[in-house]
Amino acid sequence: MKYKLNSLIIFVSLALLVGGCDPAINNEKGTVIAKVHNKYLYESDIKGLVPRGTSLHDSIVMVKNFSDNWIKTRLMVEQAKKNLPEQQLDFDQQLDDYRNSLIIYRYETELINQMLDTIVNDEEIEKYYNEHLSDFELKENIVKLQYVIVDQDSEEETLFREIFKLPDSLMLDSLEASGKLYARSYFLDTAYWFRFDDLLQTIPIETYNQELFLKGRRFIELSDNQFTYLLNFVDFKIKDDASPLDFERNDIISIIINRRKRELIKKVRKDLYVKAVENKEFEVYYND
After folding, report:
1. Which residue has the higher pLDDT, 27 or 216?
2. Which of 284, 22, 254 is nearest to 124 (CA)?
3. Full residue range of the structural domain in which residue 206 is found
4. I want to staple 232 with a disulfide (CB 3.0 to 4.6 A). Which of 17, 146, 214, 252 is the partner?
5. Mean pLDDT over residues 229-248, rounded?
């Protein structure tokens, strides 16, 4: 691979760079691949560009494309320098601000990783939900259900129809046992809310009015060319209703944790400032 990389670099270098001795070349950075005015692209600049196992032809194409893009970028930079006024080329303050922002971000991220409490208990979740109930309005219809998908006209169709007629306490265990053995697919977790539109990706329900379809429904059976779908609706919520707590739980946890992050950083900054004042670590030279 080293031989291949050296070969393609020599090839591309000859194609892109006019030969000759140039005192500006930094020989420690390896072979020169391209040059624009007094700027050079070196072999070391493309280290890791070509994945191991790449053919010589593909490697040459990759290096050449990278070099071409580098050349076009450098040419545009040089053209901009010629045509923009000097004051528009001074980025020292912006670069300094950006660097400071990156340093602070890295430091605060480490503080968060080390100090943030990410455990959110049920009491906190319920408290936030009740205090912000108006924020949790459903934007779509959602359902809780159990379903089983079996091959059409199979013997298992009758079995599952009978299981769905059992009392709830017996039905779940029977569905679990039979689903593993005979169903193409099944879902039994009634604690989980489905978005109705997501359900339609799995179950071929045809309806022009989801709200009307859901009202009064419990058990339905559908078929297509291959499968029979048996569904038992346990609960549903209509668009614009208050969204149930268990549907919003994960989002509430994220909200609480993000709020803790902000509070943690705010406290760290305040404590740092108070300590600096006490230790006289800074001075100001302006009047109120």
Report:
1. 216
2. 254
3. 138-237
4. 146
5. 92
* Cβ within 8 Å of residue 38, ≥6 positions away: 24
Q: Using CB atoms within 10 A of its CB, is residue 220 exposed (0-12), middle (13-18) or buried (19+)?
A: middle
For tokens 């528009």, what's the residue?
88
- Contacts of residue 75, Cβ cutoff 8 Å, sequence gap at least 6: 36
- Give pLDDT tens digits for 97-132: 999 999 999 999 999 999 999 999 999 999 999 999
Secondary structure letter of residue 190 according to DSSP = T
Q: Which residues pair with 137 in a beta bridge?
A: 242
Take residue 161 and report the two structure tokens written for it. Answer: 């129809």
Using one digit for the tens of pLDDT, what is the confidence trace for 260-278? Answer: 999 999 999 999 999 999 9
Q: Are 152 and 225 in contact (CB under 8 A)?
A: yes
**Domain boundary pick from 218, 237, 256:** 237
First to last CA, the chain: 68
Q: What is the pTM of this model?
A: 0.67
Domain containing residue 194: CATH number: 3.10.50.40
Which residues face 186 on adjacent strands?
148
| Tokens of residue 67, six digits | 């070099």
What would the mean pLDDT of 190-218 be, rounded to a whole number?
Answer: 89
Q: Under 8 Å CB-to-CB from 129, ≥6 apart: which residues?
A: 136, 245, 248, 252
Cα separations (Å) of 90 from 62, 79, 123, 212, 231?
34, 16, 54, 64, 67
| Partners of residue 228 on adjacent β-strands | 150, 223
Asked whether residue 93 is assigned to any structural domain, the reply reads: no
